[in-house]
Backbone:
């Protein structure tokens, strides 16, 4: 638990910002109420509106996110009262369903109890993303996602066992009230996956690639006005390069470029074979997500949206912060406006930590 002086300072800064930006009156009364709560209990409780706006601000302040133009559209699911493992699982399923209720993916955050609250149980999710594919080492080869080999072994040590395929969904590993780690499985029929094909190359579907629609970041805590929410999974939508370039293209991930180059009969002695194969892979991922009505954004559009976000924030008198190395796309970086833009990496709150 934070000391009262530190908590009062962070709480006042957030509550003042909330009332100023939402153009509401009543700050003094609300601040007096919060000060009394902190004095009596060492903590305070956000209203639903404060919680909702705090989550939106955390997205707006996320230095590594290029998709912040849409921060005001974030849907908040208040699950601070969840106290049982079964209700926790249902809340995660509800998050997935909420994010996929529309034709386009909806950015969603589910917020469980804060670390110093008696509202519900304190959950902590150990997965980097809620949905992940397993990685297995077998006969000096890797089946599945090499990035997740260590985590897969950890899941197996807890009693989970996968099928041993390239796309086994890992369980959600979590703890409750600082207790021992447990795991649960999201039912496969609740997870939308996109099978990857190409509009011009029928052989592409034979590669057997697929990916899940929702990138739900789940291991980070949420800090709103000094109150820490240790479990607050949230999702936006994928940028094309995340799946095509990194997940499928990287040598230390699924490493699909050599297989695609072989199908295209590319000259592997040419310095451009990887770029040519990656272009076809990117076309396939984009085509497949569009065909499945799964939101995905190409690198040029993503940067254009971010530059629009910067313009709106500057108009509002707010400085945009960001981690430049994360905001630029891995391919054709210098063709985007953000490559030539200086940006501070200062950390602002509310934020994910």
Residues:
């Amino acid at each position: 638990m934070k000391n009262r002086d530190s908590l009062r300072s962070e709480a006042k800064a957030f509550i003042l910002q909330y009332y100023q930006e939402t153009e509401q009156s009543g700050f003094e009364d609300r601040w007096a109420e919060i000060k009394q709560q902190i004095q009596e209990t060492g903590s305070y409780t956000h209203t639903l509106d404060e919680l909702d706006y705090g989550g939106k601000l955390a997205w707006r302040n996320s230095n590594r996110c290029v998709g912040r133009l849409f921060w005001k559209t974030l849907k908040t699911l208040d699950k601070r009262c969840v106290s049982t493992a079964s209700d926790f699982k249902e809340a995660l399923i509800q998050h997935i369903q909420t994010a996929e209720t529309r034709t386009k993916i909806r950015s969603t955050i589910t917020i469980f109890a804060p670390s110093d609250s008696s509202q519900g149980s304190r959950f902590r999710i150990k997965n980097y993303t809620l949905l992940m594919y397993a990685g297995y080492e077998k006969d000096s080869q890797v089946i599945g996602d090499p990035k997740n080999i260590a985590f897969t072994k950890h899941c197996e040590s807890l009693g989970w066992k996968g099928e041993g395929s390239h796309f086994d969904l890992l369980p959600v590993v979590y703890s409750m009230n600082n207790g021992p780690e447990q795991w649960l499985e999201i039912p496969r029929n609740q997870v939308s996956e996109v099978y990857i094909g190409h509009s011009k190359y029928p052989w592409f579907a034979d590669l057997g690639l697929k990916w899940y629609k929702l990138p739900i970041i789940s291991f980070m805590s949420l800090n709103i006005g000094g109150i820490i929410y240790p479990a607050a999974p949230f999702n936006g939508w994928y940028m094309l390069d995340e799946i095509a370039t990194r997940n499928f293209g990287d040598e230390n991930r699924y490493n699909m470029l050599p297989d695609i180059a072989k199908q295209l009969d590319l000259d592997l002695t040419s310095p451009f074979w990887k770029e040519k194969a990656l272009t076809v892979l990117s076309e396939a991922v984009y085509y497949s997500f569009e065909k499945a009505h799964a939101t995905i954004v190409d690198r040029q559009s993503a940067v254009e949206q971010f530059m629009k976000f910067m313009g709106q924030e500057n108009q509002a008198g707010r400085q945009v912060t960001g981690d430049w190395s994360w905001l630029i796309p891995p391919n054709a970086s210098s063709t985007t406006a953000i490559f030539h833009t200086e940006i501070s990496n200062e950390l602002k709150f509310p934020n994910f930590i």
